[in-house]
Amino acid sequence: ATIVGSMLEWYDFYLYATMASIVFSKIFFNAADPTTASLQAFATFAIGFVARPIGGLFFGYFGDRYGRKRMLFVTFCMMGLCTTAIGLLPSYATAGVWSPLCLVIIRIVQGLGAGAELAGAAVTSYEHAADNKKGRQGAWPALGLNLGLLLSSLTVYLLTVNGEQFMLAGGWRIPFLLSFLLVIVGLWVRRSLPETPEYQQFEEHHQHKRPF
Q1: pTM of the complete model
Q2: Which one, of 185, 191, 182, 187, lies nearest residue 80 by Cα?
Q3: Cβ neighbour number for residue 62 with a 10 Å cutoff
Q4: Are 26 and 163 in contact (CB under 8 A)?
Q5: How many Cβ atoms from other residues are within 10 Å of residue 203's Cβ?
Q6: What residue intervals traverse the membrane (predicted)?
Q7: In the predicted model, is pLDDT for residue 55 greater than 60?
Q8: CA–CA–CA angle 134, 135, 138 (5° rounding)
Q9: Which of 38, 46, 104, 205 has the most CB atoms at less than 10 Å from its CB?
């Protein structure tokens, strides 16, 4: 269950980086200045990283207070729905400056969710593991990196073989919209995930961890 969330996170990571280098400078920014447009496209990619540690701290605090499972549900939906929303955004030619502005806002929210998902998945795996397997099980979410890379690379490859015009005409939206299916699958997998034993013990004694 934690691997699914990690896979979605890295699917978004590699997908956005690839699309930023292929078409985003022509879709969301003023293509009249290709160099500036490319820099702006990669700047929106970097914004997500700035938001990640903030998301980890923020949702980590609420995960300590209200449970790992609830926060994993929230952050997983944040990531998946934001990725889907990118696929629905109008282009710069249609909406002007509102297009990159909305993209930046979505990337910030997405970054908050991604930072929390990574930390929350690792903690959840660790706390569910037996005492002699905590190190190994806590590392399972890292497998999502390879799965996300494989899935995003395969998806982009299958689309780019149709040519640049296909991508610019709307083909680039397909992998972002497909993330909605990943959200549905992920929520179905995580619905049976129990709360971690450690948090249940704190809940029974009405105690809450503090982040600092």
Answers
A1: 0.85
A2: 182
A3: 14
A4: no
A5: 13
A6: 13-32, 38-59, 71-92, 104-126, 138-160, 172-189
A7: yes
A8: 75
A9: 38
Tokens representing residue 12 in the block: 């978004």
pLDDT digits (tens, 9 = 90+) for 109-153: 988 988 887 777 777 777 777 777 766 666 677 777 788 889 999
16 vs 202: CA distance, rounded Å: 39
Alpha helices in the chain (DSSP H): 2-19, 25-27, 34-66, 68-88, 92-95, 98-128, 134-138, 143-160, 164-166, 173-190, 197-204
Token readout for 105 is 């806002």
Q: How many angstroms separate the most distant Cα atoms in the chain?
A: 62
Rg (C-alpha) for the chain, rounded Å, is 19
How far from chain centre, in Å, is Cα 129?
25
Q: Which two tokens stand for residue 198?
A: 């450690």
Span 148-169, average pLDDT: 91
Least Cα distance to 81 among 173, 171, 176 occurs for 176
Query: By three-state DSSP, how is residue 174 classified?
Result: helix
Contact (Cβ atoms closer than 8 angstroms) between residue 107 and residue 85: no
And the tokens for 212?
Answer: 């600092």
